[in-house]
Write a structure and sequence with these properties.
The structure holds two protein chains of two kinds.
Chain A lengths: L1 H27 L5 H4 L3 E7 L6 H13 L3 E7 L4 E7 L5 H12 L19 H11 L4
Antiparallel strand pairs in A: 1-3, 2-3
Chain B lengths: L1 H26 L13 H5 L1 H18 L8 H5 L1 H18 L11 H4 L7 H17 L4 H11 L3 H4 L3
Helix pairs in contact in B: 3-5, 3-7
The chains are: A alpha+beta, B mainly alpha.
Chain lengths: 138, 160
């Protein structure tokens, strides 16, 4: 008798959870927008002063443009920054950096963004990924 | 006599048909060519793929520009925020140009509240967009149309 009740409660729990999830997704589902459908692209900022003169930067840019997965690069002579965009699913950033090192003997030095103030302890990227998979609206 | 009457009747009928036909031809207005509606800017720009490419190039230009790059430091430091920013930017451009999606992010006033963006910074942002459009060889008409759509946002973005 006890076993039957236990099993029934388990089944009821699973059914309730299933119904809740179905209702949640149904109520919050939205068609993925252009931004959501777009392939994930990451941007890297490199200190161009470590690359050399503008001619050398242009040669590096030419190498970058030949690489599959690299979307583009922009060099700004005033800020001395070289910004590279690449498809996260197409190429690994270490491949970009090692290719430049191999082709030009240059070690690209990334200029990271510095965030002041407190940082959110929750992994929002993971939540975002789940929302993206379930097509849940923001 | 009967034959003559028949012939007269037949003649009159032919005449009636002929004149009615002619009259109809005269009355029929010459069809004026209906102007084909111009496709939405979204379509003329090339849809999702092209707008995404322009947006990515725009972000790239912004990050390289010393005038405005610092404004994106907080966003750039957090990959989640940065991905969301890019996503929203693509959605907003698609929506503004008549695409099939609706931008659901914050309005421009709230999104830039407390950032104290100057007119020079806004100008640099516009230049970054124009440079991106030029890189993808977007015709001047479409460029101006897009800038005319985005221009009024200036008062919501600058100076607060």
């Amino acid at each position: 008798m006890k076993a039957i009740i236990k099993r029934s409660l388990k089944v009821l729990g699973v059914v309730t959870l299933g119904l809740f999830l179905t209702a949640f997704i149904y109520a919050n589902w939205e068609a993925p927008t252009s931004g959501r459908k777009a392939p994930v692209v990451d941007f890297l900022q490199y200190d161009a002063s470590t690359i050399g003169d503008s001619a050398q930067v242009k040669r590096v840019q030419a190498t970058l443009s030949d690489m599959d997965g690299v979307r583009g690069s922009t060099y700004n002579g005033i800020s001395n920054l070289l910004v590279v965009s690449y498809g996260v699913e197409d190429i690994d950033r270490s491949v970009i950096e090692s290719t430049i090192k191999y082709s030009h003997d240059i070690v690209l030095q990334e200029k990271t963004f510095e965030q002041s103030g407190p940082k959110c302890p929750i992994d929002m990227a993971m939540i975002s990924r789940v929302k993206r998979i379930l097509c849940v609206r923001d | 006599m009967r034959n003559y009457t028949r012939m007269m009747a037949a003649g009159l009928m032919v005449l009636a048909i002929a004149t009615t036909g002619c009259k109809k031809d005269e009355e029929e207005p010459t069809p004026t060519p209906t102007p084909t509606p111009t496709p939405a800017l979204y379509t003329r720009l090339g849809g999702d793929v092209a707008i995404t490419a322009v947006t990515d190039q725009f972000i790239q230009n912004v990050l390289a520009d010393p005038t405005i790059a610092d404004n994106f430091a907080a966003t750039g430091a957090d990959p989640f925020r940065f991905a969301l920013f890019r996503e929203r930017l693509i959605d907003q451009l698609c929506d503004a140009t008549g695409g099939p999606y609706t931008y659901t992010g914050a309005n421009m006033y709230d999104a830039h509240d407390g950032m104290n963006i100057t007119e020079a910074e806004f100008g640099a942002l516009v230049n970054a967009l124009v440079a991106s459009l030029n890189q993808f060889e977007v015709p001047t008409t479409e460029q101006n149309e897009l800038l005319a759509i985005l221009g009024p946002m200036q008062e919501d973005i600058v100076g607060h």
